[in-house]
Design goal:
Length: 441
């Protein structure tokens, strides 16, 4: 059986280059918040899974286009997150050697780039729980992490993406899940999925666990209620996520609720709508203190700053993820959710200037690995993480094969061709991500 190892996160001097063996924290970066937000609601881009899912993009929006004058808001005074609550500080990150094995297989097919590809093996990725079947592996993963913790004498943090909501990705084609309202998915989600995950977490109470909760869920309720499936699913989304928060908010578990990304919810109208949804769900779950914060850019390609959005969506005040979290923090504060931290998925956002449409989300051609996982890299940010394992497909690109999505297909202008279905390994795409890495490997 393939084992796993840990990756060190060292919180030391600011702005150090990241080595292959350790992640240096920095206090640099962080764009200033802006109050300008004069845009129509943008379509979502993707979240994807390491098992059977990827995510949607829909052009539908329930929000009318605001004017610049009406959209302008006074800046809100925000409260920084408590630094002592950062679960990654002073810890190692767990490395999944199942992911390493995929890299090894690909490296054998490309002798010229093998050395570069193998450098990626040193970096941690999240583990996706995207079906009921996946819950069976949680305890074994945490046992491996415990062994690494004992061996190294430092905490080992394991990051799980919990991703099996009933009517999952309601605006999607590529990433529909196994649970539906019709098949009793809401009860199965609670008892067969969330409760089993919680039981494993409780059994390993000495392990630090991070949960990224349900990518592409509540954000669809902010912008895509004109999609019938999303409208029908809104109640089950809200009470299922509330149940997950209540159940998984254990002493050893830190939760980051999905926060979409700059190109989806950057406009103030969208941010106010999602902040109200978060407030509603968190109130039902027992209050905002149940979560540490929010995860943004999950499975997406938005740059940290000054990327494609500045050109393709000039009315979006969030020009990158660092702008976005500052603006989202203000909207959250206005909704009574204060002092929250963020994690940002930087696994595939290393290059900008590669999209022709801001709403493109599937296996973007020319993309590269982004900033390496690191702790406290910018204001409000607990960590940059590789939440979506680089090299796993966002959706199928072959029309006659299972998992096909037209946003990933031959006519999608920004999608790499001949992709396998969501979550499956896309070796040629991984090679490109590694070769295009920024910073370089």
């Amino acid at each position: 059986m393939i084992g796993r190892r840990a990756f060190a996160i060292v919180a030391t001097l600011p702005c150090l280059p990241v080595s292959v063996l350790a992640v240096a924290a920095s206090a640099c970066g962080g764009a200033a918040a802006t109050t300008q937000a004069p845009a129509a609601a943008n379509a979502p881009a993707a979240a994807s899974a390491s098992s059977p899912a990827a995510a949607p993009e829909s052009t539908a929006s329930s929000l009318p286009p605001p004017t610049a004058a009406a959209d302008a808001k006074p800046e809100v005074k925000v409260t920084p997150p408590n630094a002592e609550g950062n679960p990654f500080a002073g810890a190692h990150l767990y490395i999944d050697h199942g992911y390493v094995a995929k890299i090894e297989t690909t490296a054998k097919t490309d002798a010229a780039d093998a050395a570069t590809l193998k450098k990626v093996e040193a970096f941690p990725t999240a583990i996706w729980l995207s079906s009921i079947k996946d819950t069976a592996g949680v305890s074994k993963t945490l046992e491996d992490a415990a062994a690494e913790q004992k061996k190294g004498g430092q905490p080992v943090v394991t990051t799980f993406v919990v991703y099996d909501l009933p009517e999952r990705d309601c605006a999607a084609v590529a990433s529909n899940g196994q649970l539906t309202i019709a098949n009793g998915g809401d009860k199965r989600y609670q008892k067969d999925f969330i409760d089993k995950i919680a039981a494993s977490f409780k059994t390993h109470a000495q392990q630090r666990v991070v949960v990224v909760l349900e990518p592409d869920s509540l954000a669809n309720l902010a912008t895509n209620l004109s999609v019938p499936k999303c409208a029908a699913a809104q109640d089950v989304y809200k009470h299922s996520i509330s149940y997950a928060i209540k159940t998984l908010a254990l002493p050893n578990v830190t939760i980051y609720l999905d926060g979409a990304h700059a190109g989806w919810l950057g406009w103030s109208g969208n941010r106010e709508k999602i902040a109200a949804l978060y407030a509603e769900v968190l109130k039902d779950a027992g209050g905002p203190d149940k979560i540490r914060g929010f995860a943004t850019n999950v499975s997406n390609y938005d740059s940290l700053k000054d990327g494609d959005l500045a050109k393709l969506e000039p009315s979006d005040p969030a020009k990158g993820e660092l702008d976005y979290i500052q603006l989202l923090d203000q909207s959250l504060t206005g909704a009574g959710i204060v002092g929250k931290a963020f994690v940002i998925d930087t696994g595939r956002n290393g290059r900008s200037g590669i999209k022709t449409k801001s709403g493109s989300w599937c296996n973007i051609k020319g993309a590269g690995l982004g900033e390496r996982p690191q702790v406290n890299p910018a204001p409000l940010v607990d960590a940059y993480l590789w939440i979506k394992p680089p090299g796993e497909s966002d959706g199928g690109g072959e029309p006659k094969k299972p998992g096909f999505d037209e946003k990933c297909g031959p006519d999608a202008p920004d999608a790499a061709k001949d992709a396998p279905r969501a979550g499956e390994w896309f070796g040629s795409y991984f090679i490109d991500l590694a070769k295009n890495a920024n910073p370089p490997l």
